[in-house]
Amino acid sequence: MILTDNETKVDLLNNEAISKTIIELLRENPDHPVTIGVHGDWGAGKSSVLEMIEAGFAGKEDVLCLKFNGWRFQGFEDAKIALIEGIVTGLVEKRPAMTKAAGALKDVFNRIDWLKVAKRAGGLAVTAFTGIPTPDQISAVVGTLEGIFADPGQLATKENLTSAIEGVKSMLKPAETKNVPEEVEAFRKAFDKLLKDAGIKQLIVLIDDLDRCLPDTAIDTLEAIRLFVFTARTAFVVAADEAMIEYAVRKHFPDLPETTGPRDYARSYLEKLIQVPFRIPALGETETRMYVTLLLTGAEIGEGDADYAKLIAAARERLKRPWENAGLDAAAVKTALGAKADKANNALALSEQIGPILASGTKGNPRQIKRFLNTLLLRERTANARGFGADITLPVLAKLMLAERFIPRLFEQIAFVSAVHPKGICDDLEHLEKGLVAEGANSRGDGKAATDVRKASKTTETVASEPESAVLSEWVSSETVRDWARVQPLLSGIDLRPYLFVTKDKKDYFGPVSILGHLATVVEKLFGGKMTVQGYESELRQLAQPEADKVFEAVRTKIMGTGALETLPAGVNGLIVLVKAQPGLQSKLLDFLEALPSSKCGPWAVSGWQGVVKDADCVGRLTALLTEWSKVTNNPALKAAAELALKDTKGAR
């Protein structure tokens, strides 16, 4: 069961309200030209709204609805020509019996030829207004091309240019207008006459995926739309993310005057072209829960099922007032689906469990929600195919994936410990979850719930008396982590190794950690706060030298893996305590410092080492490194810190 990510006429988001509003607006004054924008982030459902608009005009003979996808035409043809010619050819295809319009059709195609001239003649004479060259400009192009033959040094062959010249000459029509504004007006009149003769009272062009195009393609398409903006009976509905279009405008016009900021100009450009903007709202928590329920149920019983249509109708009714409803419940599903309601049990459970965090993490984006669900279902299938599907349950996998996707540091911390635990358990996570359950029970006065927590593991008093690890302290202080931990089901006592194994498509947690074994916990401790890690010095002294080497390498690798060295990285304070407890690591410490990129390293790299580097050779290496850093020219902060450290060193002597 994989959810498709194509535009659809099946409305699960209640976007039909937007499509109906746009259809009504278009039909109010069909004679008047209008440009409507359907805006929203990538994956918000813009394409589906266009599908609904097209479906809403189906069967209306006096309305012609055409779709144009700029992204699909990108790279194949000049965007202006592709759109304009696409509109006319679409008209011919959908209205083949246009005997009365034969003359008007020929006139329009002749005028489209003018657009092609600029392209075939090497892109010369493209005007900022419409891209249509004048006859004088075309004559100049022909003269230039003919002159090439007299110069054998030109990088062109007669065969290559002959066809271009003949094509250009064939388009020269002396009787036609001699300036761009007149030519533009002539095209509009010819196109308007074509619509009249074809019996079309309104032409609606739906433009999709404009925000996927390269900036020049997007601008060319918008410029082509401008050609029709004042043409009667013609309406455009443009689906695009405003931010991407504004970016395209700024890239296309890089040399704007200082008095007109690029952002202001881009916004004005779009607002002038798009007369009526509609923005698709992001899904809230209630809408996300409903959407997840409908998606998974539809995939299970089929979108064409009559009872599924009843469930959609029930959801739409509740979506009319989402602030008063908590989503679809078992009773509503039972009423709509009848005997098939059992097939929606997983959908209901998952939507209830992951809806709140999924809504927040995806910012209510339908495509992101689909991608999350598809990854979830695909991983479940993979576990089944590899023979350990019985060890995987969707609710637990979904909860872990929420952390993986939206709180990656939390997921890494859980995975790092659970992968090497003999039972696949993360003790800190158990303490966090049980503490939150007890906290909730106490706030409700629920004595039974608190008693259940005590029976399940240690008593609340015992847990509270134990010192918190640095990781647990970090989790408890984060409201985001606490919200995630409250999501059902709780993971206490669950072997998480099968779930980590099925996430190996992104990272293998059983490679490096299996080498560390029980030392993985020691490494994790060293990434705590400065005061916390100092308390581990006596524990670190108990490590054998080979163990200390492994811990040092693991900490060093994690620090360098962050890539952010401008400020003090987590783990550095732990590294200092480790070397202090294990003096045999001093040489490895200098290897680490010497490998730091001086151009990207903050002043933290200078201090803290003098108290742990005592070996004569290592002291000499450290002094030489500080001297080298004191001479850098591309990092003033590091240079100043190194100079000060050298002065302090000399003063101490």
UniProtKB/TrEMBL annotation:
Residues 16-382 form the KAP NTPase domain. It comes from the Bacteria. Residues 441-462 are annotated as: Disordered. It holds the Pfam family KAP_NTPase. Residues 445-455 have a biased composition (Basic and acidic residues). InterPro entries: KAP_P-loop (IPR011646), NTPase_KAP_P-loop (IPR052754), P-loop_NTPase (IPR027417), QatA (IPR049673). This is KAP family NTPase.
